[in-house]
Amino acid sequence: MLSTICRKTFPRVPRPASLSSVRMLSDVQNPKTAIVMLNMGGPTHIDQVGDYLHRIMTDRDMIQLPIQNKLGPWIASRRTEEVQKKYMEIGGGSPILKWTNSQGRLLVEALDKLSPETGPHKHYVAFRYVPPFTEETFAQLEKDGVERAVIFSQYPQYSCATTGSSLNAIADFYKSTPVPKNIKFSMIERWASHPLLAKVFAQRIQEKLEAFDPSIRDDVVILFTAHSLPLKAVSRGDTYPHEVAATVGSTMQQLAVPNPHRLVWQSKVGPLPWLQPYTDDAIKAYAKQGRKHLLLVPIAFVNEHIETLHELDIEYCYDVAKEAGIKQIERAATPNVHPTFIEALADVVINHMNSGQRVSKQFLTRCPHCVSARCQSSKEFFRELCTDKYYEKNVL
Ligand code: FES
Asked: Is the shortest distance between the CB of 86 and ligand 1 below 6 Å?
């Protein structure tokens, strides 16, 4: 029995009337603390796909190509139609903005209750490749007159290609705009090992294990799947692979089931070598070994997006699994707005605010083989932004 979760529910993503209507949902009067949720974002409608791909393909933090200013736009325009088709197949756009806003609203509600002294809290979304862009969000929180801003990466596991790219964009923005005089900034750039994050992944897995017959349930192979990374980035010293593995380890500990598990990697692009084994290859290989009951668990993204709804649900759970002769394959949901996940977000933020640490030494340390001048200057920028240098100079 091939699972039908992949094809049966594709709710059309409602097209917001305008960006301001999205913001209306989270309007908070006189916010004291801003929670700035960083993510790459995804096109809400297909007419954003071309621009989205162009921005990704020309971002050297995300991807390095020869003659990138020419090759990047060329690849983006060649891929636009094919990618638009995929977004059409998942309902007409990415749900990342919808989920991030829902998570943000629930998060600030929780923070207002748990930490009234730092409230009112207001969430802001800062996307890298689609609106609301990082630059406009940072301009907005200054206009709102917040006293404190917690920059909170929505990638639990840090990579220089994802969170690093968003942070470099913030540093770039403040090269051309004066740093706000009266905001205390701090940063949560990684939270891969938080116990409540592991708990929500364990709960999501448990929900899907129940879908297997009890007679074979313990033998289902749990395949944790994360976006792959070029081996060149791994060799530079990017911490992403071991941080993803840390989340897998703590999730399995929470789950306490006898099932075998593996960490596999998806979404490779281009001809160069990336982290393996690839998720689709692993499905085929397990089928050949006679392991025909599989559970896919997206472990590096906190909400549904094209790589879960299309790549996992349509391409792998359906097409690849069917061709390989898999008997049953399920896909665990991402955390989305699971109550344990909202608890996790709130706990991460409160622990961070209580710690007094505004920027971690781990973030300030470059990869051993980093050759990017952008990384160096952005780390220097945040070292100053997240101390009282700007604040003291301008306010005290
Ligand atoms: Fe990792 Fe520069 S590539 S810090």
From this structure: no
- The whole model's pTM is what? 0.91
Q: CA 149, CA 164: separation in Å to the nearest integer? A: 18
pLDDT tens per residue, the chain (396 residues)? 444 444 333 333 333 333 333 443 457 888 999 999 999 999 999 999 999 999 998 888 888 888 888 888 888 888 899 999 999 999 999 999 999 999 999 999 999 999 999 999 999 999 999 999 999 999 999 999 999 999 999 999 999 999 999 999 999 999 989 999 889 999 999 999 999 999 999 999 999 999 999 999 999 999 999 999 999 999 999 999 999 999 999 999 999 999 999 999 999 887 789 999 999 999 999 999 999 999 999 999 999 999 999 999 999 999 999 999 999 999 999 999 999 999 999 999 999 999 999 999 999 999 999 989 999 999 999 999 998 766 555 544
Ligand 1 neighbourhood includes 236 CB (under 6 angstroms): yes
**Cβ(61) – ligand 1 distance below 6 Å:** no
The CA angle 14-83-93, to the nearest 5 degrees, is 5
240 Cα: distance to centroid of ligand 1 (angstroms): 11
Alpha carbon of 355 to ligand 1 centroid (Å): 26
Q: Is 60 in the pocket of ligand 1 (CB under 6 A)?
A: no
Burial letters for 285-324: b for 16+ Cβ neighbours within 10 Å, e otherwise?
A: ebbeeebbbbbbbbbbbbbbbbbbbbbbbbbbbbebbeeb
Which ligand 1 atom sits closest to the C-alpha of 372? Answer: 2
Among 62, 158, 231, 236, the mutation site with the greatest number of ligand 1 atoms within 8 A of its Cβ is 236
Structural domains for the chain: 4-9+193-331 (3.40.50.1400), 19-192+339-394 (3.40.50.1400)
In a 10 Å sphere around its CB, with 0-12 CB exposed, 13-18 middle and 19+ buried, how is residue 41 labelled? buried
